[in-house]
Recover the amino acids of this structure.
């Protein structure tokens, strides 16, 4: 093993991202003594339980028993892996992570940083216009009539694009953004004839869409009656750009993410105004797709944060059709999906305004799962007893659907579904299961499987072996006084430690020493990618501080004692090994003598180690 190749980049990224700033950009921090505290987003936190230590650059929530460094905070906050967290923090600090290929020219249409700042500039401009311009008063009134109050207008940063061809373009040059940049982020279009560009959004309410770092990356534009024409439709969204993909981003996910993580549930609605209406009624876990049905990438994204996805559909025929289309997707993705169909002719905003949030939550709680929903649809109006033709068609469509569920997925759920179908259609479960297996082997079915990306194999369960006893004492001492690390590395072999986790940690120390880095806890944290292990290290560090007042003797002596105990244990292992060899093997006299001599030598060393040194008095 050796240190990760990007260790130096990690160091730079860590230096450039103060943990107080990073945590403070997503949580409200309050100073408390030498630390900061915030309400923990991962449990229902009444008092601020999450603490941030600016000196150690660490964070910790005791009730959740989680903690770590700035990287593991971002990993948890955004539900990403270590390399992604590194990338996010590098972006934040403007540090370029070396990638293969040609470097991107600053300020060009390929430069993500420039595109992001153009979006930020435009978002502010749209927002300020709606907030402040006298000409926008009529639009503010319109929003009010539509039930969007000022608080939520500000919360969702709703803006307005006046009905002009160059309102944005005209100001962009002064702000340093060329028409090509505006075109690259989807805010301007090139004229078909001649040269020049024109604004893409004209006379529209602007709903910004943010990435998980709260940066605007796209807009939804809604036509306002009496302003401008409706060419382009009632809703217009930013097309695909370098920053935004409608199949991968969700409206308001940046805001809903933390409530989702607490409630383990996401509500996927059909429009951004639905999401805003939900928020006005205190429902914080709603998101919306933009101009596209829920797709695989959306599901994968949401699965990072929740266990259950509730699809909220308008009570019209189109809503039903959309549900039918996505049900298969959810079955194949092996996710707990519910389908909430609103009463005839209503959208979430109507329902919430008329019936209130409690009635809505009741609907959510009662929403059938995807298979039940499909079953109800397939058997709707079918006489299962008399109309055998229609009944078998319905059954077959259900079995084909169940056959799409991943075979390594939730088998319990599949079994329950089969039982349910058996009851509904009055057939033996074994027969149905056999039919499902046949569908799974059907080449047509297999092709369909292929078309969908392979479901990711479930990650191998990580055995979380706690580091305890003398292993823990050793690491705490190395954290307490990093000057003692070389001595410990010299005297103790990693294989003497009790668990894989402890051995791996020891190897990290070895690598750091080998490559001439400081042996402090900060560097160990930097070399470790596993969020859980980072948390363990922060715990050790805390416990070193807690014990500081009560611990006896200088660290040098305590380290020597720990080393002696390790060696003592190792020697008695060796002795047992030798004894075993003596008993089991056919040795000639000479070999036996040799082994015995070794054993006595080991024993003397062990005794010497275990005998307390004679008192000097
Ligand atoms: Zn917590």
């Amino acid at each position: 093993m050796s240190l990760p190749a990007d260790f130096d980049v990690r160091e730079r990224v860590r230096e450039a991202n103060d943990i107080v700033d990073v945590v403070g950009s997503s949580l409200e921090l309050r100073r408390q003594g030498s630390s900061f505290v915030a309400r923990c987003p991962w449990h229902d936190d009444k008092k601020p339980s999450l603490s941030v230590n600016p000196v150690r650059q660490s964070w910790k929530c005791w009730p959740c028993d989680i903690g770590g460094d700035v990287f593991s905070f971002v990993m948890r906050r955004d539900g990403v892996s270590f390399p992604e967290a590194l990338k996010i923090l590098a972006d934040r600090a403007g540090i370029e992570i070396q990638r293969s290929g040609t470097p991107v020219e600053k300020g060009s249409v390929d430069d993500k940083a420039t595109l992001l700042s153009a979006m930020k500039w435009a978002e502010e401009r749209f927002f300020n216009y709606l907030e402040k311009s006298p000409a926008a008063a009529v639009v503010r009134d319109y929003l009010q009539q539509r039930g969007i109050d000022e608080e939520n207008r500000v919360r969702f940063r709703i803006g307005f694009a006046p009905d002009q061809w160059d309102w944005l373009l005209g100001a962009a040059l002064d702000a340093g953004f060329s028409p090509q940049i505006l075109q690259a982020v989807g805010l301007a279009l090139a004229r078909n004839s001649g040269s020049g560009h024109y604004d893409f959004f004209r006379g529209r309410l602007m709903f910004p869409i943010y990435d998980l770092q709260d940066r605007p990356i796209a807009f939804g534009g809604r036509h306002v009656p009496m302003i401008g024409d409706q060419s382009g439709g009632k809703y217009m969204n930013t097309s695909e750009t370098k920053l935004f993909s409608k199949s991968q981003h969700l409206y308001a996910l940046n805001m809903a993410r933390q409530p989702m993580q607490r409630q383990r549930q996401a509500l996927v609605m059909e429009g951004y105004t639905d999401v805003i209406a939900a928020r006005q009624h205190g429902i914080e876990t709603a998101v919306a797709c933009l101009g596209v049905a829920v797709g695989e990438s959306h599901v994968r994204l949401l699965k990072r944060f929740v266990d259950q996805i509730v699809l909220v559909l308008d009570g019209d025929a189109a809503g039903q059709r959309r549900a039918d289309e996505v049900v298969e997707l959810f079955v194949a993705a092996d996710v707990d999906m519910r389908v909430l169909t609103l009463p005839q002719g209503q959208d979430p905003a109507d329902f919430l305004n008329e019936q209130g949030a409690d009635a809505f939550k009741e609907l959510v709680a009662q929403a059938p799962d995807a298979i039940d929903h499909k079953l109800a649809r397939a058997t709707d109006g079918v006489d299962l007893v008399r109309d055998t033709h229609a009944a078998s068609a319905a059954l077959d469509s259900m079995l084909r659907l169940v056959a799409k569920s991943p075979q390594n997925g939730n088998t319990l759920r599949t079994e329950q579904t089969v039982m349910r179908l058996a009851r509904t259609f009055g057939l033996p479960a074994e027969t149905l299961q056999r039919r499902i297996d046949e569908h799974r082997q059907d080449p047509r079915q297999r092709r369909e499987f292929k078309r969908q990306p392979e479901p990711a194999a479930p990650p191998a369960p990580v055995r979380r072996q706690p580091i305890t006893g003398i292993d823990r004492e050793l690491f705490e001492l190395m954290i307490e006084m990093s000057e003692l690390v070389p001595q410990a590395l010299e005297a103790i072999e990693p294989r003497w430690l009790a668990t894989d986790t402890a051995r791996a940690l020891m190897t990290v120390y070895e690598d750091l020493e080998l490559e001439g880095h400081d042996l402090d806890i900060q560097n160990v944290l930097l070399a470790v990618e596993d969020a859980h292990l980072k948390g363990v290290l922060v715990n050790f560090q805390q416990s070193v501080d807690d014990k500081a007042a009560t611990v006896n003797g200088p660290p040098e002596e305590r380290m020597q004692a720990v080393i002696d105990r390790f060696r003592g244990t190792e020697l008695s292992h060796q002795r047992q090994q030798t004894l075993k060899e003596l008993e089991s093997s056919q040795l000639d006299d000479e070999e036996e003598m040799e082994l015995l001599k070794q054993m006595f030598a080991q024993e003397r060393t062990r005794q010497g180690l275990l005998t307390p040194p004679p008192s000097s008095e």
Notes: The mean pLDDT is 84.
